[in-house]
Structure formats: C-alpha cells, structure tokens
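We now fix the convention by which a protein and its fold are recorded. Think of the row as the fold of the chain written in a discrete alphabet. Here is one such record, which you should read through line by line.
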Amino acid sequence: MDWLPLLSTLAGAVIGVGSTVVADRTRWRREEAKDALRLRLDLYTQYTTTVKVLGETLRALAERPYPSDGERASALREAFRESGIAVASERMWLIAPQPVVKACDGVFHCLRRICEGYADGSAVNSPEDRARWEARGVAAARMRRLMREDLGVGPLTERHSPLLDSQDNPAAP
C-alpha cells in the first residue's frame, strides 16, 4: 500500500484545520478588542457626562436662595450623592487603565471640593470658587486627554472649558 497519498491528504487536513483555528482565534481576539474598546468608550462617555451634569447642578444649586446655610449644604451634598458619580467612578476603577483611573479620581475630588466649598458658604464666582473650577478644568482636560489616548483617537487642540481670564468669564462647569 502506498502511504504517500494518505499522508499528504492527512497533512492537508491538518494544515486546513490548523489555519481555520488560527483564523478563528485571530477573529475572536479582534472582536474582544473591539468589545473592550466599546465598553471603555461607553464608560468614558458616562463618566464625562456625569461630571458635566454634576458641575452644572452644583453651580445652579449654589446660586439658589435657601432659608438657611444648613439647607443649602444639605441640597448640595444630596445632589452630589444622587448624581451617579460614585457609581461611574467605581466602574472606572474596575475597567479603565490606571492613568485614566487616577485622572478621573482627580476630577472626582475637584468636584467634591467644589461641592464642599459651596456647602461651606462660598459664593459662586468668588476667588476661591474660581480657583476650584480652574483646578477642575485642568484635571478634566488631563482626564479627557488620557481617555482619548486610551481610545486611540488624536489629541484635541483646544480645551473643553476655557481658562478663566477675567471675573466676567467664569469657567463652564
């Protein structure tokens, strides 16, 4: 019996099955990478949106009149708790790479200082308030830069929120 045709058929089958397995594995890895990127994009979008909305909410609450300082502080702290930033932050700690987590945590703490400043009676657009908002703006710009880097998109050429350059131009929350 001639073994050469049988061996060449067997070798062809092994090569065919092997190349199919390698191609499937490569396709699976590519899909996993796409899914992970989509997940991080959703996470980053949720976090940056929560940061933006919370900032606007804190500023709006701080501008309202209250019967007492305690009620103002209570409203601000409750808005912070109810904003969803704690949940978004925890998701970030679980999924994002370390540099993005650290940057997001920096923004979280800036917003916490803004909230506590207002709760302690700081006026909107006071020098202390403006300094806290500027720190938040710098932290948020760093956070966005790292997020964009992680997502593989190019850097922005301008800041999301302009620098404070006069008393009449407060930073956008």
Summary: DSSP finds five helices and no strands in the chain. The helical segments are 4-63, 69-82, 85-95, 98-119, 127-151. The longest helix spans residues 4-63. The chain has a mean pLDDT of 88.
